[in-house]
Amino acid sequence: MAVASSLAPVLIVGAGPTGLAAAMSLARAHIPVRLIDRAPQPGRHSRAIGIQARTLELFEQHRIVEPFLELGHRAHIANLYSNGQRRARLDFDPLFTRYPYLLFIEQTVTERILGGHLATLGVEIERGCELLEYTQGSAGASAEVRRPDGRVESVRCAYVIAADGAHSTVRHRLDMKFDGETMAQSFLLADLSASTPWSDDEFHIFASGDGLAALFPFGHGRYRLIADHKAMLPAAPEGTIPVPTLEECRDIILQRVHHPVSVSDMSWASYFSVNSRMVRQLRVERTFFAGDAAHVHSPAGAQGLNTGIQEAFNLGWKIARVHARGAPERLLDTYHAERYPIERLVLQQTSFMTQLVEADHGPLKLLRERVMPALVALGPLRDAARQAVSELSIQYRRSPLTLERVLDGGPRAGERAPDAFVRVVNGPLGKAPGKGRIFDLHDPACFSLFLLVEGDAEAAAAKNGAEVSAMLKRLAEAVERLFPQALRVWWIADLANGETPLAGEGAATLTESYGRTRPAFYLMRPDGYIGARGRPASDLNALLRHCETWYAAAGFAQAPAV
After folding, report:
1. Is CATH 3.30.70.2450 the classification given to domain 181-275?
2. 72 vs 463 pLDDT, higher one
3. Which three-class secondary structure state does DSSP give residue 168?
4. Which of 11, 68, 386, 402 fits as disulfide partner to 414, beta carbons 3.0 to 4.6 Å?
5. What is the pLDDT of residue 3?
C-alpha cells in the first residue's frame, strides 16, 4: 500500500534515535512524515551506547535487527564492585528472549542504521532545518522552518512529535516546564583501548569512596569509560570546551578500579552534566514529547536511548490509527497514560542507582556492600533484576487499552508478547500452513489476531467440534471488519510431537509462551504488546466492544454479536 499522500504529514523535530524510530513506525503504517533536524550533519560522537533486549525484539519485528547484531558487541554479564571487591554478578543468559545480553553499539551507528532503513520507506531526513515558530489548534498545527539556504518555509501538519533533545525548541515554544534538578557532579566519557583481566563479554561498574567508574566493551579491545567527576571541570582557554585527557582516565582507573587495567589510544572523550528532569504531560493538544525532550536522567542502567525508542513505537501506531483510520482522539491520550509512569520510574531508578554506586558512607554504602549481594543471590530477585535491566518487564496492564480475561498461563493483556515457535494452521493472504515464529508473523504496521487451536484444521475440528471452528471463523471475520487493511489473523498451534523448530534461539513452544487454553485468542498491538486475550466462547463480544471503543473509525456500524 502506498503512503496516503492526501493526509497532512506528521512533523517530527529531531533526527536522533527517538525521532528516527517514530518516523519508521509512522512510515511503515503509510503515514506521510516530515523529519527535520537543526544539525547540518549527523553527530560524530556517541553518548548512548547500550541497546537492551526489549528494544532488539522490537527491531526484529521491524525487520532491522540484523545490522545491529552484526555491528554491535554483546555483553552477557554485569558485575558490580565496591572498593575493588565484586559484590554482585548478573548473568543475562537465562532471559527468555533471543537477545540475552546488552548490545553495545555507538549511537552514531544506531542512527545510521535507522536512517538507512527510513530511506527504503521513502523518508528523507531534512538536515540543517531549524524550527523557528510553532502554533497548534483543533484543525492542525503550523510551523515556520528555516531551511539550509536561509529560506523560511511554512509547514502545515497534523501532529508534531518533539524529539529534539534536552534543550527542546518545541518544549520552549510551548512554555513547558521541565521539572527536576541538576545533579551536583558531571560525568566523563572516553573511548579507548584497554587491557583487562576479564572476558570482553562482561561489563563492570566500580563504586568507591573516590567515585564511580564503569567499563563497557565494544569488542576488539575497545572500551567506553564512564566516571563521575565531582571536582570542578578543568579550566580551558576562552571559547573552548575542556576535554578529558588520557592521563586523567588512567588516574581514575588507578584510584577506583583496583584491578590491573591499562588504557591507551583514546579516540574521543568528553565531559557532560547530568540532569534528572521530565515534562508533566507527554501530550499537549497536537504535540507529543518523546526521548530527551520529555525526560533526561543519569546514564545508569543504559535506559535513556531505549526508553525513547520504545516511546516512539508506542506513539507511532496510535497516531496512525487516529490520523488515517479515524479512531477516536482519546486513543492518543493513552500515550501519556502508558508511558508517563514508566518514565517516572526510570528517573527514580537511575537516580537511586547513581546515589547507590557513589555512596562512600552511610546506609546506601551498607546496602551496596552487604544487603544487595544477599538479595541478588536470591533466584526470584535475580530474575526480576534481569527482567528490569533488559526492559522485558515493561508492561501496560493498567492501561485502558487492555482487555484481560483469565486463561491457563500465557502473557496477560498489557504485557509484552513473547516469541514462540508455532505451526501455522491458516494465515492471511492464503498463507500456506507450516512452521513459523510469532515475531516473524507479526507486522508492526498492523494488529495481529492469534487464534490458538489444537493441531491442524482437521484436528481442531475433531477436538473442538465444528461449532467451535465456525465460531472462530466468525470471530476472525467480525474483528477484521473493525480493522480494515490493518489486521492479520493467524490460526496457530503447537508444533507436532517430534517436529523440530526453526533455527534460532530464545523462543519456546506455543504452550510454554501462551499457556494451555484452547481455543483462545490473543490480540497483539502493533508495538508488540498484548491488547486483549480471552476465550472465544465467552469473551468474543467483549473483545468486539473493546475494539469498537478504542480502535474503530467514528460512525462505524457496530459489529453484530457472535
Report:
1. yes
2. 72
3. coil
4. 402
5. 46
